[in-house]
Amino acid sequence: MNNLLYRTKGDKVIWTIVIFLSLVSLLSVYSATGSLAYRERGGHTEYYLLKQLSVLVMGLLIIYFAHRVNYTIYSRVAQVGFLISIPLLVYTLAFGSNINQASRWISLPIINLTFQTSDVAKLFIFMYVSRQLSRRQHIIQDFRKGFLPIVIPVGIICLLIMPANMSTALLLGASCMILFFIGRVPVKFLAGMVAAGAVGVVMLFLIAQLTGMEMRTKTWQKRIDSFLHDDHTETPYQVQQANIAIAGGGMMGKGPGNSTQRNFLPHAYSDYIYATIIEEYGLVGAFLILAAYMLLLLRSIRIYRRCPYAFGAFLAVGLSVTLVIQALTNMAVNVHLFPVTGVTLPLVSMGGSSVIFTSLAIGIILSVARNVEEMEGKQAEKERLERVMAARENEAVA
């Protein structure tokens, strides 16, 4: 155990955030799934708690082993991962498991594991973009040679994700734009990227209506209409129940395990787990969750500023940005600031593949942090030895 702790490096604050969010996940998932487990598992109310615990333990192991890998290796992995992501997304659209009219999942035989291919694609596209940005900094102002080779892969991935999961595609595009901005891409290129994205969304709606293709355009339109018009007679059921949960939480909440809306709120353990947290822990608990993600972003920005190499800097800040944007979107949906989406709360919502890929992203961030600390340690040791040698020379001269 001592050897394991000694080998655990990286930003200690980020490690603390991971442990904190994991504990919150266990408490919230157990509270939100107690009744469900009792009905579905014959009174075994701890079933989903134990399942989430096993997933989180696996996630912690992934973080540990990922952070022990030198982050420069991920630069080579990014190319292969990006090329693998494209056929995976195409296969998902054509043959993926259809849940709620959306083909987002594929199942692996033998081990019977179901995962969202968009999670795989998001991770690899950020690694790929970080690699390309670091290699093209000297020509990033050139639209044809610098910008197009980076933005085209992002566009391909977003277009393949969009038919089944528009919210994820839009969040991915927004996160990549922030990374482009940090990577000194000209603002006029980013404006063109926004325009192209808007045209792509409109074209998708038109194609679906003209061809009668089975896409989720009607669902998207209904959610946007209900959000914009705020007609309480047509407010989605999950939004109504989330509002009741939040109103019942008050400042300090009802206490752990005392939520009542968990029995009425759809997906209280995943998409709407933040509303459950507010009901049980109040605005204080809601603020602590928000602060944890903001602190994760700030610590990643600190790693970005300290990292002497562009790839590591872009990798750390890019992966943290996408995690925090996903978290903020989930919170905004829960408090009815955004239309309803299927975005989960990273490391908190119950899940399998989402926790695994989130853990891998955090492990990569910590890998960058570990290497930065080691380089700074070597530099500090070098400076100390130089001071010692200089002092000895001065003593010899005296």
From TrEMBL:
Chain segments annotated as coiled-coil in the UniProt record: 368-395
EC number(s) given by UniProt: 2.4.99.28
Keyword Glycosyltransferase listed: yes
Domain of life according to the entry: Bacteria
A GO molecular-function annotation: lipid-linked peptidoglycan transporter activity
GO cellular component labels: cell division site; plasma membrane
BP GO annotations: cell division; peptidoglycan biosynthetic process; regulation of cell shape
Transmembrane segments: 13-36, 48-67, 73-94, 106-130, 150-182, 189-210, 272-297, 309-328, 348-369
Compartment annotation: Membrane
Stretch forming the signal peptide: none
InterPro entries per the UniProt record, alphabetical: FtsW/RodA
A Pfam short name: FTSW_RODA_SPOVE
Keywords: Cell cycle, Cell division, Cell shape, Coiled coil, Glycosyltransferase, Membrane, Peptidoglycan synthesis, Transferase, Transmembrane, Transmembrane helix
Annotated membrane topology: Multi-pass membrane protein
Catalysis performed (reactions): [GlcNAc-(1->4)-Mur2Ac(oyl-L-Ala-gamma-D-Glu-L-Lys-D-Ala-D-Ala)](n)-di-trans,octa-cis-undecaprenyl diphosphate + beta-D-GlcNAc-(1->4)-Mur2Ac(oyl-L-Ala-gamma-D-Glu-L-Lys-D-Ala-D-Ala)-di-trans,octa-cis-undecaprenyl diphosphate = [GlcNAc-(1->4)-Mur2Ac(oyl-L-Ala-gamma-D-Glu-L-Lys-D-Ala-D-Ala)](n+1)-di-trans,octa-cis-undecaprenyl diphosphate + di-trans,octa-cis-undecaprenyl diphosphate + H(+)
Assigned protein family: Belongs to the SEDS family. FtsW subfamily.
Protein's name according to its UniProt entry: Probable peptidoglycan glycosyltransferase FtsW
Lineage: Bacteria, Pseudomonadati, Bacteroidota, Chitinophagia, Chitinophagales
